[in-house]
């Protein structure tokens, strides 16, 4: 089997983001056949139709990284029961103009991470709705809502909770199987 490149989009810009730590853990735990790489969104300016036909280089670079991937994995927090603005902005940039949709036809998955008990469920569902409109084929099971994250990670981002690590491995194996269908 050929190794599949997975664009990992982290929906948080916070320096010590729990989501970035989980994304890095997932990179470490990725099964053979999946190569996960974080695609940065911090330098993307706000989306505007006024400039989408002659976009800034940061937009072009981002779209190319997504386009050159075989799959997409969103790892995101939840802000006010929905998707972080920076992630929504990246999704818009990647999907516009519609004839140049970088997401189209790619398999995808979402993991939401939160210090709260329900693990970003609102954001997870909102990402799925937006992804469907962008023509991403999202893995439906297992769903990944990782709550009470402060109890599960060390400061360096290493999973300390054996149950969480096992879940991430199971999730990544399922994602690998999903990606191989495309």
TrEMBL record:
Organism domain of life: Bacteria
GO (cellular component) term, any one: cytosol
Residues that span the membrane, as ranges: none
Entry-linked InterPro entries: Flavoprotein-like_sf, FMN_Rdtase-like_dom, NAD(P)H-dep_reductase
GO MF annotations in UniProt: FMN binding; oxidoreductase activity
Domain NADPH-dependent FMN reductase-like positions: 5-147
PANTHER family (alphabetical): CHROMATE REDUCTASE, NAD(P)H-DEPENDENT FMN REDUCTASE LOT6
Name of the molecule in the record: Chromate reductase
Organism this protein belongs to: Kaistella treverensis
Lineage, broadest ranks: Bacteria, Pseudomonadati, Bacteroidota, Flavobacteriia, Flavobacteriales
